[in-house]
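Progress note, project year one: complex with glycine.
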Amino acid sequence: MAAWRQGARLCLLTALAVSSVGCTRPASSELGELPPSVGDFDDAPLKPIVVAHGGQGSPAALSDGPLRAVQAARTRMDAGDPPWEAAIVGIEGLEDDPRFNAGIGANLRMDGKTIQTDAAVMDDLGSFGAVAGIRGVRHPIRVAEAVASTPHLLMVGAGAQAFADTLKLEGATLATQRARDKLAHGWARLLSDRPMAGWEGVDWRKAWNYEVPAPKNLREARVLALGEEGADALAAAEAAAEASQAEDESADTEDGTKDTVGVVVRSSEGHYAAALSTGGTTMALRGRVGDVPQLGAGLYAGPHGAVAATGKGEAIIRERVAAEVYRRMADGLPPQQAIEVATRNITADEGVGVIAVSDLGWGAWATSQMAWAAQEGAKLYRADEMVWR
Ligand code: GLY
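Model obtained:
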């Protein structure tokens, strides 16, 4: 690793602000006491902290995934590895989990054929590496790490792919059924009279830049996502549900395309790292790059803390979310407050989630559900053990 030394929301999911927003203590006796309330800090030595998320929009019930990532990262820190390596190891665990949009669970793009992944890692010593638009790699975070050992900060496209190939990393080529279902759902939303944020009024057929022809209707779009048989099966299931007037179970899944995985780390020496990995957004034109590999958009780390965002990449870039959360933590705001202030211009329809850690503690928050977990010292916290109303 070479150092770069140039220099009405649904719920607050953070433990730090639990009492103020109706979130209550976890019921499980396995969970520790919550971190102190904002402003209630003592002078005790720093405890190591790891926070991980499974992406904005990921069900809190999947928090076992981030919890495993947190514990893997913590194990590495306990063994003496720096926050940089701990954050990467945490991300690797989430890239191995097909339930999350990264690594083997990465989203499919609109053509139903291509997968493009982005990843980035940064620490408080100024090291940064990022990669965008690569394919067929199980752990894109290791490519981002390798970029940090070059004179560059960010590599994209064919060159990044060729660079990744030199690393001879383990491959990942097949889309999961979950990714196919998400794409089918995304197409249904795009072709509805209520397209997802950013696509309203967009002439996407004119902008279509994939190698396969643009689908002319929902049936053709579903064939791209699911194949002929899958599209037929979905249509038959919908017809049966309509006949029995059953609830459409997919109705509350949104388009499910906004997620990413992230890890932030604080060592007991007060060093920080942040890492992100994503399969990007399903409903995206070819070549689109989101917030993840952009320094200060999806992630930031420095001597005052570390931040990792998830959600609508365009909104995160526009609001410079990670840099703004970090700036406010550097000004002395606890992570939770810093997150709230820095994300207030992002709407629930756009969607964003953030995890952050500083010398004042940690925060985890999203405009919707989000799987996350944290470990502070010996105490564990996870989103699905939090209760909110
Ligand atoms: N937040 C991931 C993306 O927008 O690509």
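The longest strand covers residues 49-56.
Residues 260, 278, 280-281, 290-292, 310-311, 313 surround glycine (CB under 6 Å).
No further modelling is planned for this target in the current period.
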